[in-house]
Amino acid sequence: MSNIIEISDFSLPNLDVFARLTETQLRNRLEPEIGIFIAESTKVIGLALDAGCEPISLLMERKYIAGQAHGIITRCGDIPVYTADSNLLAGLTGFQLTRGVLCAMRRPHLPSVEEACAGASRVAVLEGIADSTNVGAIFRSAAALGIDTVLLTPSCCDPLCRRAVRVSMGTIFQVPWARIGSESSQWPQQGMKSLRKLGFKTVAMALNDNAVSIDDPQLMAEEKLAIVLGSEGNGLAPCTIADCDYTACIPMSHNVDSLNVAAASAVAFWQLRVR
């Protein structure tokens, strides 16, 4: 049975997760290995539930209770459903709930690299990509374009931060992902060893005099390939490029030197997909 709670007092501690906690505080709200994340929109919440994520509480405009969120509320059982009209909620959260519904959820169990890569033939490795919009967009491209797993180095942004989840349109819950290296010192050397042990060849996406074109036949023919992408400003570290089996680039026109990392990932994923 639904537990509908009308909001009148913004100081309720149970509303902290939606309005007053930083992303870091959310990750450590419960036990550090569990934590909390926020999913927005009925579509994204539904995908998170499909993936087995456990809901804690919902926040939504009153009009959605019997409308588009009815199915989500039913799936979530008797958790608290905090509600008010849109103006009141804007005062609480500091912004309009453009998607109408928020859900606080427990963070899912994070698999090991070996578990996440089981059966994978195409893997994306994100090195030091701190921009949450780029991370979310890369996950969306990975899901759409045949990437089996996404691996993130220790300095990457959290894929379960609110913006990354929103930009990914929930695909973060559809593509297996894991952290490769629990400390910066373990990447790239130990991380590359793990990938090779799992049978992957590695390709660094980088502007380099030795880079082959992304449509190089030998590169495209690799049975198991890890596509390594770097941050927007600095790109991949030289030691990472040196450690990879290949370096590849996307041919450019009109003297454009490179694409945004999210756009480049989509091109790379499509070109290097398993055929």
UniProtKB/TrEMBL annotation:
Residues 123-269 form the tRNA/rRNA methyltransferase SpoU type domain. Gene3D superfamilies: 3.40.1280.10. InterPro entries: Alpha/beta_knot_MTases, Ribosomal_eL30-like_sf, rRNA_Methyltransferase, SpoU_MeTrfase, tRNA_m1G_MTases_N. The keyword Cytoplasm does not apply. One of its GO terms (biological process) is methylation. Its EC number is 2.1.1.185. The keyword Methyltransferase applies. It holds the Pfam family SpoU_methylase. Keywords: Methyltransferase, Transferase. One of its GO terms (molecular function) is RNA methyltransferase activity. PANTHER family: RRNA METHYLASE, RRNA METHYLTRANSFERASE 3. This is 23S rRNA (Guanosine-2'-O-)-methyltransferase RlmB. It comes from bioreactor metagenome. The gene is rlmB_14.
